[in-house]
Amino acid sequence: MSTTIARFGQRDHTSCHKAHCKTVHFATYSAEDITTVAHVTDDTPVIEIRDLHKSYGALEVLKGVDIKANAGDVVSLIGSSGSGKSTLLRCANLLEDSQQGEILFSGEPVRWRGTGMARHPADRAQLIRIRTNLSMVFQQFNLWAHMTILQNVMEAPVTVLKRDKAEVEAAARKYLEKVGIGDKCDVYPAQLSGGQQQRAAIARALCMEPKALLFDEPTSALDPELEQEVVRVIKDLANEGRTMIIVTHDMRMAADVSDHVVFLHQGRIEEEGDPQSLFGSPKTERLKQFLSATVSA
Ligand SMILES: Nc1ncnc2c1ncn2[C@@H]1O[C@H](COP(=O)(O)OP(=O)(O)OP(=O)(O)O)[C@@H](O)[C@H]1O
Ligand SMILES: [Mg+2]
Known about the structure:
- The protein is built from ten helices and twelve strands.
- It is of the alpha/beta class.
- The strands form three sheets. It has a six-stranded mixed beta sheet with strand order 8-9-10-3-11-12, with helices on both faces.
- The chain is globular, with a radius of gyration of 19 Å.
- The termini are far apart.
- The relative contact order is 0.15.
- The structure holds adenosine-5'-triphosphate and magnesium ion.
- The site of adenosine-5'-triphosphate has 11 residues, from strand 2 and helix 2.
């Protein structure tokens, strides 16, 4: 069995530690589940998507999208409703199948069987590895209503990764503390505000010790005041060098936290760049229109 689990970037010391942990945790899968991981260097992107095409039936939603996030990068995805942002995130962590193009995770290409509409991930162990290394935070929190906050955060590391329960509990408490709700371990989601629930969802994502976090509109279900609590947590994560892809309608947050911003329009990347140039001097008419509509909204 290979123990060559991909290395993390040097800017994130927490992640360096996590790389070691994953080697141990994935030993809980059977030997044939674990396959050799591609050789990686420090500049190998954590996630790289090349020429991705995705259709729902006759509707082509992604029409050849390229995107990548190096270790420690924060990439924001912006664009109007229906432009394909959520679909792209869901394809990235293999929640959705795509029909064409490549998805590489720490340099390791997703292996497919079949082509076109019949294309699916071919390797179960790889699928598990990728999913568990890309934690997703959703707009609607998706916490289990019947579990306490602590149980919510501990659930996947214990049941999916088969990690030691006491260790996971210590980590879960640490992450809940980190997002500012360390005193809410024993309450149920319904007893928390939206902002607190979303911060619990972020703690849950962190407790998987993922290589990257994917956020799909993490603040858009929240009132402005609660939104800021969550934005602060996301900024802290960016400052500590976490690799993140964030779909957001919050242009201020995108400008503040991102290394790179991608503007998606009707399934294509219309414009991309560093936040200063993209927001400061947009080049395409579509981005100009989008930004002026967003600002005046
Ligand atoms: N499961 C699905 N089945 C069929 N069509 C879908 C499905 N999911 C999304 N679509 C369609 O794909 C297109 C892109 O949807 P997507 O949810 O990715 O957009 P989005 O950019 O995230 O929009 P929003 O800002 O409103 O969240 C839309 O036309 C949508 O109707
Ligand atoms: Mg969406």
